Amino acid sequence: MASTPHTSLLIIGGAEDKVGRATVLRRFVRLAGGRRARIVVIPTASAFPEQAVETYTTIFRRLGAPEVVAVDPPTRPAAAAEALVQAVDNATGIFMTGGNQLKLSQLIVGTPLADAVSRAHVRGAVVAGTSAGASVMSQFMISLGADGVTPRQRTSQLTSGLGLLPGVIVDQHFDQRARYGRLMSLVAGSPNLLGMGVDEDTAAEIRDGRKLTVVGSGAVFVVDARSAVSDVPEARRGAPLLVSGAVVHSLPTGATFDLHTAQLVGFVEKHPDVVVKAAFTAPDDTSHVGTTAPRRSS
Asked: Quick one: residue 173, left, alpha or beta (phi over 0 = left, psi -120 to 50 = alpha)?
């Protein structure tokens, strides 16, 4: 009797290193099968999809992946195209780029292409996303919201995502864009959901929907508001929220966390290379190397 395959998600906070050790992207290629990997890049969120495909194709091939193809439906009906669905059905790794996650919800969520991504996840293919591609992993994703440290009433918006990580709200560029407040406000209003904020050049690797391991140069922030007290039902729009008693976890590389029990499992001190991007400048370096789309509300 065949064993049930393990599932893998790689949720990346954006601006991952692409020119140095590329620790996060190297991990993705390894999870996808290394020299046997068949990778699909979905650049739909990007404002520059062709550029995004070219960038990631070059990187993944440099890291050893022999086969990289693009899947980018221009319209929602196009997400039912047999060729696109078949490409995902054949993939061992799926990578969703950054950009605007509302494009992902409008063009992909709830389509045959989204169903193919879910099937790939269940059969053991690694599904990865960076920035907007990270947010869409959850059932309810942050699609709009003000940055800042203080949680405020009704300043953020949730939209339907792919549902690959139920019970969790994902935010990205977390430390770099001070998104503590918006994540805290959302879990205060939906305390049954864990909040997960992922720093840039950092990934939450999630195995079997439960075991979270941190990869990269930053940290993953988890907030548990199930026992917190909040004035969400009474606060006026834009007002600072009362959130008292939430439990927060800051998890650097080397940390392992159980999403079901919301508890730290273990920690091994590691010292990631945090200066690789600054230490390397290619002769033909361009400003888009570190990102695939202009900064938006993603």
From this structure: left
Contacts of 112 (CB under 8 A, 6+ apart): 79, 80, 85
The rounded distance, in Å, linking the Cα atoms of 270 and 267 is 9
Q: Are 199 and 220 in contact (CB under 8 A)?
A: yes
Burial class of residue 3 in the structure, from the number of CB atoms within 10 Å of its CB (0-12 exposed, 13-18 middle, 19+ buried): exposed
Active centre residues (catalytic): 131, 173, 200
Tens of pLDDT along the chain (298 residues) come to 567 899 999 999 999 999 999 999 999 999 999 999 999 999 999 999 999 999 999 999 999 999 999 999 999 999 999 999 999 999 999 999 999 999 999 999 999 999 999 999 999 999 999 999 999 999 999 998 999 999 999 999 999 999 999 999 999 999 999 999 999 999 999 999 999 999 999 999 999 999 999 999 999 999 999 999 999 999 999 999 999 999 999 999 999 999 999 999 999 998 765 544 433 333 333 333 343 333 344 6
Domain ranges of the chain: 8-271
225-245: buried (b, 16+ CB within 10 Å) or exposed (e) per residue? beebebebeebeeeeebebee
CATH code linked to domain 8-271: 3.40.50.880
Nearest to 29 by CA among 116, 94, 96: 94
